[in-house]
């Protein structure tokens, strides 16, 4: 049984999400604010759902600290729906974003998709590809989400890992923002999705590159997209 942590200071929202997810067979742990969420995250948690506006610590701050403890997928479920809010959420390390009021079907679909992708790339399910990709000291395991540079482990989110894996398996191919979004998120691309892709590329570079302004691994092809050479 998968364990899902829901953090929201609204008792009614937590109850709705808990009942909904428990009916799908998940075990739900509740947190009443950002600090409580951080304290309850451990290796047993398979997915985290965060609100943005919470007491003690906002969802953004909680997300950043949670990312230091786990690479489990993080979904923001919040009434704040501006592009700037989504930008901040992805910059903090989240994997997905769903605005309130939300469709129950949509929430369950997002949760299942995040968990499925996370466990495929952690090696919980079999994928028929070569086990290890090596590029100039960068090593990417295709049967787990382990990444290292010069034998030093690099901690990536599930989305970051999926982007890196896709591009490394197709070296020299130029991926537009639309290519990446539709391949990784498996959703139709809209212009606003470009910012989502840019944030994840920036986050990847900050973790992989000694000098993110002059990247060694993920190159920008101006006017076209990104590629790994």
UniProtKB/TrEMBL annotation:
InterPro entries: CheY-like_superfamily (IPR011006), OmpR/PhoB-type_DNA-bd (IPR001867), Sig_transdc_resp-reg_receiver (IPR001789), WalR-like (IPR039420), WH-like_DNA-bd_sf (IPR036388). May play the central regulatory role in sporulation. It may be an element of the effector pathway responsible for the activation of sporulation genes in response to nutritional stress. Spo0A may act in concert with spo0H (a sigma factor) to control the expression of some genes that are critical to the sporulation process. The modification 4-aspartylphosphate is found at residue 51. Residues 130-229 bind DNA. This is Stage 0 sporulation protein A homolog. Keywords: DNA-binding, Phosphoprotein, Transcription, Transcription regulation. CDD domains: REC_OmpR, trans_reg_C. Residues 130-229 form the OmpR/PhoB-type domain. The keyword DNA-binding applies. Residues 3-115 form the Response regulatory domain.
């Amino acid at each position: 049984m998968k364990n899902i942590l829901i953090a929201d200071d609204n008792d009614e929202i937590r109850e709705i999400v808990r009942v909904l997810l428990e009916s799908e067979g998940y075990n739900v742990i509740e947190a009443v604010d950002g600090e409580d969420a951080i304290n309850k995250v451990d290796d047993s948690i398979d997915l985290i759902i965060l609100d943005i506006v919470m007491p003690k610590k906002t969802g953004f701050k909680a997300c950043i600290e949670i990312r230091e403890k786990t690479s489990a997928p993080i979904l923001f479920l919040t009434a704040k729906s501006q592009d700037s809010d989504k930008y901040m959420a992805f910059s903090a390390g989240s994997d997905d974003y769903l605005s309130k009021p939300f469709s129950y079907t949509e929430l369950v679909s997002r949760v299942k998709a995040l968990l499925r992708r996370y466990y495929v790339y952690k090696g919980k399910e079999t994928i028929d590809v070569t086990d290890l990709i090596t590029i100039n000291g960068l090593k990417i395991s295709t049967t787990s989400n382990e990444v290292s540079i010069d034998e030093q482990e690099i901690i990536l989110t599930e989305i970051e890992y999926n982007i890196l894996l896709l591009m490394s398996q197709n070296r020299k191919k130029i991926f537009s923002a639309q290519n990446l979004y539709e391949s990784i998120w498996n959703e139709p691309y809209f212009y606003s999705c470009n910012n989502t892709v840019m944030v994840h590329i920036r986050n990847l570079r900050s973790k992989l590159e000694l000098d993110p302004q002059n990247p060694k691994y993920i190159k920008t092809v101006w006017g076209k997209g990104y590629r790994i050479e």
